Amino acid sequence: MTGEIFYPRVAETKTEATFALYSTLGEVTLLKLISIIIPVAMINNQASIQPSAVSQRKLLSAVFLSGMTTLAVELSAFRLFAPVFGTSNLISAVVIGLILLYLSAGYLIGGRLADRSPNPITFYRLIAWGAFLVGLIPFIALPLLRLARDSLQNLDDLNVALIILAFGVTLILFAVPVTLLGCVSPFAVRLSMHHVEQAGHVSGRLYAVSTLGSFIGSFLPELVLLDLFGTRGTFVVMALVLLSIALLFLGKRALTLLWMPLVLIALQLLFPVSFSQLSGTIYQGESGYNYIQVVERNGTRYLLLNEGQGIHSIYNPQQIATNGTWDYFTIAPFFNAPPFKLTQVKRLAIVGLAGGSISRLYSEIYGPLPIDGIEIDPKIAQVGRDYFDMNQPNLNVIIGDGRAALANSPYHYDVIALDAFRVPYIPWHLTTREFMQELRDHLTDTGVIAINVGRTRTDYQMVDAMAQTAASVFPSVYIIDVPGTFNSIVYATNQPTSFDNLRANLDANLAAMPHPVLRHTAEQALAKQRPLNPDALIFTDDRAPVERLTNEIMLNFLFGLGSGEIKLQ
Question: Average of pLDDT values for 20-32?
Fold first, then answer.
């Protein structure tokens, strides 16, 4: 990965007054909308169908599927935004917070509406409209997300207001459907209520069923739907399932709403699936972890994940050098005492294999040494094989978490490369002093680790913290800034070494660095050393505020706080 660029996501804090205002306005607006969808006479006719006549099985089915759809929509929302806004904790906070706000409004509105019209026809119509609007979300969101993405492509003309506006408008798309789904549980309680003394039992049973549906909905997208249908298809499938049950229970009255599933199916079949408008895109796909793209330009292929602002692998069959971050992993062994020979590197481990840029470099420069490449996303590994020629016979691909996989490895390594960003964060458990000790335990006597860490031009908080954490375990630690990128490499050696070893291996013994990639990278690295900050935070398994530091870096970068990196006019 090279040139990682962090874009902060801004979440507003909702005060109680704002919430109250939203609830009041939302209640009035939604009730007016319902009065249009459902005849006014039906809403006001409380005695048209008595609650005792309502099938409990139907209510439980509707509540279960509504709960399942609500949580599936919430989880799928993250995937909807990931190609543009990434997967930062700020995005998660905004999505979760606003969806909870919409549900809260739905509980209030649903309870009042149920008292005004305890009618199962009203109930199932609400579900039908909620399901239909859920299915429309990805189609309406697409042009807004493309607009936001276009504004993110050019940092020199970064329109912060446009980004925030597009994100806010897109989130508003969830307001009506999620609020309608929030109406379901209190409405069902009212329809199930026969006697006041049964209130606890009735409400408890219905909310238990709704929560059970939410439990299923928390697994269904990640384990089944996203892989089979993609993000947009997941919205449509969940909408059709919930819509089907509502139409079924409406009976003959469903005839006026039969156009809803037809519209959703037509949109799914007729609209192009492709989200990306990037030129040269040769592959797009989704996994349980990422939105994956492969772009080819001028004979070079690039692996992009999620918002596509960071490049995670590069492949050009005509050249080995990547001219980026990956090249700097190849010089790690040469911090050892000179003269260091290529043949002294016997085994390599890579945490964050991606498309195999590091494994290809090492195989070319150091020969067919055994390489254990650890990648948590199996689809990325397959993309690496299909599009990046990640088929070296000496490469052993391990699908799993980097820390767990290394802990279970029986080998000791001469180099361990850590390139495990899930933009914009390094997984916190791969940053701690305890993990550094586990890395050291798996090194040979002359072993070296190399860690890719993101930063901005002026904000080195994460780099300094990672280096100081490594220094709490390893005897020698060095920082090299990768020219032209937002990355630094932290090197740590298993024995006391000197930065001058790199110069000595380059100057005094060029035979130790026969490959031009090694020589060129070492020459660049010698001019880009950065001193360690002894006051930097040390991460531990008990306290590793990686997300907080990264959020600060992103916010400072976006608004240019104290750095002058981006000036807002």
Answer: 48
Please tell me whether residues 194 and 113 are part of one structural domain. Answer: yes
Which pair of structure tokens corresponds to residue 355? 């498309």
Q: Give domain status of residue 248, yes or no.
A: yes
Between CA 418 and CA 394 the distance in angstroms is 19
The one-character DSSP state at 422 is B
For the entire predicted model, the pTM comes to 0.71
What average pLDDT does range 232-238 have in this prediction?
91
Number of domains in the chain: 2
Q: Which residues are CB-contacts of 12 (< 8 A; sequence separation ≥ 6)?
A: none
What pLDDT, on a 0 to 100 scale, did the predictor assign at position 331? 95
Q: Using pLDDT thresholds of 50, 70 and 90, give the confidence band for residue 117.
A: confident
**Structural domain that includes position 546:** 323-347+412-559
The CATH number that applies at residue 196 is 1.20.1250
What secondary structure letter does DSSP report for 118? -
Whether omega before 424 lies within 30 degrees of 0, making that bond cis, reads yes
For 71, 326, 392, the CA distances from 299, given in Å and listed in that order, are: 43, 19, 21
Residue 139 lies in a domain: yes
Bridge partners (DSSP) of residue 357 are none
Residue 280, by phi and psi: left (phi above 0), alpha (psi -120 to 50) or beta?
left
Is 383 a member of any domain? no
Domain identity same for 265 and 335: no
- Please report the DSSP string for 248-290 in residue order: HHHGGGGGGGTHHHHHHHHHHHHS-------TTEEEEEE-SS-
Three-point CA angle 113, 118, 119, nearest 5°: 110
Pair 233, 105 in one domain: yes
Is the same domain home to 343 and 242? no
Helix (H) / strand (E) element for 530: namely strand 529-530
Q: Are 409 and 349 in contact (CB under 8 A)?
A: yes
Is 447 in a helix, a strand, or coil? strand
Based on the domain organization, do 227 and 336 belong to the same domain?
no
Enumerate residues 6+ apart whose C-beta is below 8 A from 470: 436, 449, 451, 477, 490, 492
CB burial string 135-171: b at 16+ within 10 A, e below:
bbbbbebbebbbbbbebbeeeeebbeeebeebbeebb
Both tokens assigned to 198: 């049964």
Helical segments of 153-258, H only: 160-172, 175-182, 184-192, 199-220, 226-250
Out of 186-200, 374-388, 531-545, least confident range: 186-200
Burial string for 364-385 (b: 16+ CB within 10 Å, else e) reads: ebbeebebbbbbbbebbbbbbe
**25 falls within a domain:** yes
User: Which helix (DSSP H) or strand (DSSP E) does residue 549 occupy?
Assistant: helix 546-559
Does residue 154 sit in the same domain as residue 88?
yes
